[in-house]
Known about the structure:
Helix content is 30%, strand content 16%. With 254 residues, it is an alpha/beta fold. It has a single domain (13-253), classed as Spore Coat Polysaccharide Biosynthesis Protein SpsA, Chain A (Alpha-Beta Complex), CATH 3.90.550.10. A seven-stranded mixed beta sheet has the order 3-2-1-4-10-6-11. Helix 3 links the parallel strand 2 and strand 3 (71-75). Helix 7 (191-202) runs parallel beside helix 8 (233-243).
Amino acid sequence: MFSHRLSKDNESLVVSMTSYPARIDGSWVSLESIFRQRFKNFKLVLTLAESQFPGKKLPLKIRLLVRKGLSILWVKEDNRSWDHLWPAYSLYRGASVITVDDDKVFPPTLVGDLVRASEQNPGAIIGSRGWEMKLVGKNLGFKTGWVRATSSTESDALFMPPGNGSLYPPGSLADIAGDTDLMKKLCPRADDVWYWAAARLNGTASFCLGLPAHRPVRAQSSTPALADEDPGTAEFGSVIAHFDLLDDISSHLL
């Protein structure tokens, strides 16, 4: 039976979001959609870089959400989309962490659906949306020939971006996920590639709910987004080469 009371102190389930100055004003919409979840027994955390918010000054709507139970996790350095997950994951060591973007309106059933699937797939990373990786000939290119994942997509073929709503159980990522120097070298713009590799290196299974696309936050459409830089292609190749993952992945995609 799910609790219908938001817990400000619960540290066994954390929902984590990050944002930055150009998008902070509109991020309240995504945050509010998380507050309106039917399953409410979680801690909601917004990770922000002190270097980007002098004096830790935040918009009124964010301050009002703090009064409702939002926790601000301040980090010294801006690590862009990497801040989606690792700061909360490393701070709340015993918690499952659900990652969400600051430009989507999330359905009220999202957190509950992820929790249910996690209970049915213990230890697995659960994603609301994702891709089924495909080989083109003998080549594996980022999203080249890939198709949308469904609930029947095999774990070894899954690639699930964090921001659509992904649940990471404690211990699901290899410690390499917290190596910011290596992250900046291999894929500074692509947290989805980085966390996918960290899960793969850890031998963690994955499961995708196969949900439809979430509604975008209109106010965020005119703000710069990391996705505008078309990250992923070079980073995917760099990570596969550095960790020597190609043969293992290819063997599961034949």
